[in-house]
Amino acid sequence: MVGLVDDELFDLIAIRGTPSECGTALAHRTAGLVDRVATNAPYAASPQVWVEVLKAFRSRADDTELRPKGGS
Description:
Blueprint: H1 7-13, H2 19-30, H3 47-61
């Protein structure tokens, strides 16, 4: 699969980066569009990593500038 999925496609369907970058990117992709978000990682991670992801997400998820324009 590695040969079939280039970086452009991977970035379209996944988020990668530091925990803070991932939380911010998740907020940018979902703010105002969904009611719930679930995360998944194919490896064990320290709970502190998820704390950092969620802090970054929550700090941006309520940001009105991220919400889609002209929606209901």
